[in-house]
Amino acid sequence: MRDLVFAFRSLRRSPVFTIAAALTIALGIGASTAIFSVANAVLLRALPYEDPERLVVMYMDLRNRNSLGMPLSNENYTDIKNGSMGSFEDMGAFFTFRQVLPAADGSPEQIRGAGVTVDFFRLMGATIARGRDFEESDGLPQPQPGAAAQPQQGPPPLPVYAILSHEYWQRRYGGDPKVIGQRLPAGPRPEIVGILAPGFELLLPPGTNVEQKPDIWIANRLNYNNANRNTFGLRPVGRLKPGVALARAQDEVESVSAKIRAEFPVSRGSGFYARLEPMHKTLVEEVRPAILALMGAVIFLLLIACANVANLLLVRASLRAPELAMRSALGAGRWRVIRQMLAEAFLLTALGAVAGVAFAWAGIRQLIAIAPANLPRLETIAIDPGVLLFTAAIALAAAFIFGMVPA
């Protein structure tokens, strides 16, 4: 404590040096903190789902047509799900769309929608805040009329059910709990049966053209018709059983894909394959190299800042040679003198870290404003306790680096 008090008095007597050194280290720490906050939110933080490390996304690749990462048809999805449940705890699927519905004031509003299998919310661990989740009967296929029947003579269609996002419920209905049981003014007039908890979203790469935050979720009544096997639209998500490796699940899925290729010439000719990817990996794969490159660049910038501050401290130490000689003559040992100089370095770093966090906060606002469209989870980028812990760690490392060299 005496060393810190003496260091504070010494730095206060040299305000120009103190401000220059603190700002130099603040720029290095601020840039590192800002970029690490991006890396933390995008690359390190787990997805906001239940047991996200076991979630995988299924893509369809038509290798002979060089079409990769496509959605699946109802029929291919159903066959693969039924044939690969040895590796999966559960599997669901969704598709998204846009539709125009009347807003609260009656004006037309374009809303985002999604059709999901009835087990999708349970698969992802989403919470139904009001009402109920979809039930198995909500997803039974619609009855199809016979070949000779007229459209109006077919069996009556089954009802359609919907769950609203919390945000749309607040925006369109003002949070009215009586909305449960009402019908949406669109298409088959789906009945509202539930309200999602806030914040649920679909996190897939932008290239998949998936609406990230649907307003309305419709229970998808999956029909199975081999004549529609080449109509693609579903994005499947599966949860691996505990302890099951991705390679084993891929082998099981491939065995079903091989049967589909053998049975259907169009699938065989196009080179149909189903590919599994970890959900988090496929979300960040495109942006990972750029973020890691930026992280390396700002760490290099921090090292340059440390070198500059070390030079400043070295010049300052040479000017204090008479003082240090006097301290040694009065009995101060080598470690005692080094400890005093390290105290100044740590005090400078503390000032720089505080200013660096302020710089990082302002920098994050600018990063979000200019971020590319393919950067996921933008809204989660923030200075949280994990980022502050990183800042403290690099501040201590920087203080040791530029403080020990002149000492």
Strand content: 15-25%
Helical percentage: 40-55%
What is the arithmetic mean of pLDDT?
A: 90
Q: How would you sum up the major sheet? A: 10 strands, mixed
Short description:
Strands 1, 2, 3, 4, 5, 6, 7, 8, 9 and 10 form a ten-stranded mixed sheet that branches. By secondary structure, the chain is of the alpha+beta class. It has twelve helices and ten strands.
Question: What report would you give on this structure?
Answer:
The protein has helices spanning 2-12, 15-44, 74-83, 120-124, 166-173, 246-263, 265-270, 279-284, 288-319, 321-329, 334-370, 385-404, and strands at 55-62, 67-70, 88-102, 108-116, 128-131, 161-164, 191-196, 216-219, 235-240, 272-278. It has 407 residues and is an alpha+beta fold. Strands 1, 2, 3, 4, 5, 6, 7, 8, 9 and 10 form a ten-stranded mixed beta sheet that branches. Helix 1 crosses helix 11 (334-370), helix 2 (15-44) crosses helix 11 (334-370) and helix 3 (74-83) crosses helix 6 (246-263). The longest helix has 37 residues, at 334-370.
